[in-house]
Structure formats: structure tokens, C-alpha cells
Amino acid sequence: MRKKIKVINISLFSIVILFLSACSSTSSMKTDNENAIYSAIIYESNLRVDNLHRISGEKSNLQGGKYELESSDNIFNEDGDKIKLEDLMVGDEVEIYFNPQVVVKETSPGQISAEYIRKIVKSE
């Protein structure tokens, strides 16, 4: 009788382990944030943005604080026309399209190198 209970317990334990492993998080299988798009507000010249929040795509390690974007070549309006850095004013809302695995170099404000920024689009 004890042997039968032991076999049943081992069988139940095995089933529970299989079930839990099937339902576990697949964070190690996630793709990079290739399509990560964030929205932010320009608060100072030199592409300093605040109120950064994710619009779509994979989440990244970015928090909602202030950042300085080190990119001046890939800035566009909503029509897709290239614009100059000087066309962005304090208070403008922008969408930032990031490459995978964004790395923040400094803090206060965090600095994001141009290599992690695919494009910046000024919202009208």
C-alpha cells in the first residue's frame, strides 16, 4: 500500500512539474525590441526629452525619466520629410524608433547614443 501511494505521489509531482514548466515565463525566448517606439516631449534644446513612454513594440530597459538623444541625422516630420534639429521646439512631441537593446550611457539626464536610434518623428 505504501509503495502504491509513493508511486502516485511521484507521478503527481512529475505532472505538476511538467505543467509548471509549460506555463512558465518565456522571457529567455523573447525577441529584441526591434519595433520599440516611444513617445516623449522635448523639454530643452539638443534633443533632450522627458515623459518617455512606450507606444508599441517590445519593452526595453528605458524608464520614464529625462534623456538626451544623440542623433541629429534621422529626424522627420509626420509626412516622412527630413527636417533639421532646429525645427524641433521645446514642447514638441516626438516619437522615437529605437534599435534593439538600447543602452543608456549616463544618468541625469540619461544619454542614448545615435546608434540605438533608428529615427525621430515630430508629431504635429
From TrEMBL:
Keywords: Signal. Residues 1-29 form the signal peptide. It comes from the Bacteria. This is DUF3221 domain-containing protein.
